[in-house]
Amino acid sequence: MFQTYEGEHQLDEMRALVNKDLSEPYSVYTYRYFLNTWPHLCLLAFDTSADNKIIGVIVNKKEPHRNRTQRGYIGMLAVAEPYRHRGIASKLVCCAIDVMREL
User: Fold this and answer.
1) Tell me: the pLDDT tens digits for 51-74?
2) CA dihedral in degrees (81, 83, 89, 91; nearest 10)?
3) Residue 99: which residues within 8 A CB-CB, separation 6 or more?
4) Phi/psi-derived region of residue 27, left when phi > 0, alpha when psi is between -120 and 50, beta in every other case
5) Is the pLDDT of residue 81 over 90?
6) Is 85 helix (H, G, I), strand (E, B) or coil?
7) What predicted TM-score, i.e. pTM, was given to this entire model?
8) CA-CA distances (angstroms) from residue 62 to 19, 32, 65, 98?
């Protein structure tokens, strides 16, 4: 199941997933910058058979580029190791692009 970020109650689980595999862990302030400014561009994947555990996350932003158009940016993308190679990251990216296009 995929859904948009709902709020602060999901932050710790998101951070644990992203920080596990990224080479440079982000501070909570970096997460809050993205999540407070573009919450609709943060998408989560859940394992519904495991108490809705967050298994994937993509954190994005969209901003003006050269004063003419908008540019989307992926800030973070992570999928829990046991769930990789199932197309979850690809689906998160496609969903994020769809949302950005709608905007």
Assistant:
1) 889 999 999 998 878 877 888 889
2) -170
3) 40, 41, 43
4) beta
5) yes
6) coil
7) 0.88
8) 23, 15, 9, 12
CA distance 102 to 85: 28
In sequence order, the 6+-apart residues with CB closer than 8 A to the CB of 103 are 40, 62, 70
Residue 6 buriedness (CB in 10 A; 0-12 / 13-18 / 19+): exposed
Could you give the angle at the alpha carbon of 92 between the alpha carbons of 39 and 10, nearest 5°?
45
Residue 38 DSSP label: -
Sheet-wide strand order for 42-47: 2-4, 42-47, 53-65, 69-79
Indicate the length of the chain as a whole number. 103
Cβ-proximal residues to 93 (8 Å cutoff; 6+ apart), any chain: 58, 74, 77
Nearest C-alpha neighbor of 78 from the set 7, 22, 37, 29: 22
Tokens 């709902």 sit at which residue? 6
